[in-house]
Amino acid sequence: QVQLVESGGRLVQPGGSLRLSCAASGSIFSINAMGWYRQAPGKQRELVASIISDGRTNYADSVKGRFTISRDNAKNTVYLQMNSLKPEDTAVYYCNAHALSRTGWADYWGQGTQVTVSS
Fold first, then answer.
1. Which among 14, 26, 27, 70 is placed 20 to 30 Å from 102, CA to CA?
2. Are the beta carbons of 71 and 18 closer than 8 angstroms?
3. What single DSSP character describes residue 108?
4. What is the dihedral of CA 85, 60, 45, 68, to 10 degrees?
5. Could you tell me which residues are beta bridge partners of residue 11?
6. How is residue 118 annotated by DSSP?
7. 100-109 core/surface letters (b: 16 or more CB in 10 A; e: else)
8. Interval 88-104: pLDDT, tens
9. Contact 25, 3 (CB under 8 A)
10. pLDDT value at residue 1
11. What is the SS3 assignment for 12?
12. Among 113, 55, 58, which Cα is nearest to 89's?
C-alpha cells in the first residue's frame, strides 16, 4: 500500500506564505502525477496544482503566479509553496498521488492539512 502524509498547514495572515509538504511511502514502484487539492467548507474539492514525473505543471487559475508546486522524485515528496495568501485560500489541502504499487496503478490521498488565512 501507499501512504501520503502532509504537513505545513497552519494559521497565516493575509499576504503571508506557507510551504506544504507531502511524503509518499510504502510499496511504491513508481509515481506518475502528484498534486494538491483543496476543499473549503461547503464547497467541492478542487485541483490547486499538479506535477507529473517529467516536471510539467498545471495550476488552477486562482493560484497562478502565487503558488508553486515542485517535487523531489528521489524522496517521493511533493511541495506547494504558497505566497501572497488570501482569505479565500482557506481550506483543507489534500495531497494526491497516482502511483504504481504491487496492486497496480491507483490514486492515493493524504489525510489533509488545514490552511487558514486570516488576520
1. 70
2. no
3. E
4. -50
5. 116
6. -
7. ebeeeeeebe
8. 999 999 999 999 999 99
9. yes
10. 86
11. strand
12. 113
